[in-house]
Specification:
Elements (H helix, E strand, L loop, with lengths): L1 H17 L4 H35 L3 H14 L4 H18 L3 H14 L4 H15 L1
Length: 133
């Protein structure tokens, strides 16, 4: 988050400089600004994935779901974050009897999207055994 704020300030400062800088210098600074912005985005994604993992271990499924959703905002379509979110939903359903509809819907959607991915099929089996109890 701090890197993201710094990158915004840096980009704003460089924007003023770009008005008077030659195009070669401008290109160099634009590349550096993009690199800093990408690094901040990557760190945010990794932070939310780590926090989600810790929440999952602590059985705080609600917070895990929130962190994985934030990670997906940083990297939409990331299969690792999608699986972690589906796992959080299914565990919340199994152990706390909440988010069952969301778990089923997300698992079904991802199973259709990734038909060769066995991990979503396993998760679906876990979810279905939860419903049959």
């Amino acid at each position: 988050m701090v890197l993201f704020a710094i990158s915004l300030v840096l980009i704003g400062y460089l924007g003023i400089y770009f008005l008077n800088a030659p195009s070669v210098v401008r290109d160099v600074y634009q590349k550096k600004a993009k690199k800093i912005s990408f690094q901040a985005e990557r760190e945010s994604y990794e932070k939310h994935m780590l926090l989600g993992s810790l929440n999952l271990k602590d059985r705080d499924y609600f917070m895990a779901i929130g962190n994985y959703k934030r990670a997906l905002k940083e990297r939409p379509g990331d299969i690792q974050a999608e699986f972690a979110l589906a796992k959080s939903y299914s565990k919340a359903c199994k152990y706390q009897h909440i988010f069952c509809a969301e778990a089923y819907e997300l698992i079904q959607q991802k199973e259709d999207q990734y038909p060769k991915q066995k991990s979503f099929t396993k998760l679906k089996r876990i979810y279905l055994t939860v419903n049959s109890q």
